[in-house]
Amino acid sequence: MSDYPAPAIDPASGHVRLHDCLITPATQLSELPPDFAREPIAQPGQQLVFAKRHWQNKGVAIEFSLRFEAGVLVSVFIALEPPEHQNLDSDAFYRSTDERYAWHQRWLGKQIGTAGHFAWGNIGVARSKSEDVWVYLHNPNNSWGYQRT
Question: Residue 101: which pLDDT band, with cuts at 50, 70 and 90?
């Protein structure tokens, strides 16, 4: 796994800077560097593709995912795993959920401050029923995830 800088979120625009590209609501799947794995998802009546890339930054494992619907970027997901949260057995993983959630919140706060709703979209930290944790960014292209305030 390569060691590249962590994603950087511009609080003014919601654009996400990676070491070799800039992700904006206008980003097209075809514009992504070739090391983004494309994962089409079977969804009746919908063209859904995730594009994913994994790398490390100073020991923090990063999974960066983009969700495209009908070719349009609707969401960005950033999962961060610092060394102390890597290679946990299942009991330790489930016990660490609150700590992992707080870690993502601190990381996001350093990126954008405390606001969660912007003209360019919604951003925050989420956790799944399986206790995975990630940062999400839903842009205005996302009709279900973006809430206008």
Answer: very high
